[in-house]
Amino acid sequence: MAAVVFVIGLTLFEMWSVRTTNYLPLTLTISDSDRASSITPATVKPPSHTGLRITLTIPENARGAGDYVAQFPDGTYLEIENRTDTTLTVKVPPEFIKPGTSGIQLFKVKPDDTKERITGTYYFAVE
Fold this sequence. Notes:
The chain is mostly beta strands. The chain is built from one helix and nine strands; from the N terminus they run αβββββββββ.
């Protein structure tokens, strides 16, 4: 019986903690450089257990794609929460946020479902 109560309590706690995750807003433009050392990235200092809601400005030459994919250079995909003709908003969960400089790569999805990388990276630094 105690195990059942524990499992129910743990499930309710996880549901509550997921719903209460806060996201700090950030807006980024793409850097034509693929080297973070050559630019000054936007710096954020999110509170503990806080994610980032990052609005990416789509370069003019990359607008109008049927779909986009945003990911970290290691291949970790980011959820696209919102899209307009000129921007994408992605959510970066707290567990993906680490101190230091990070970058987001953006890809256009072609009609044949292949991805074409948009030149450049969206850099940001976490303190």
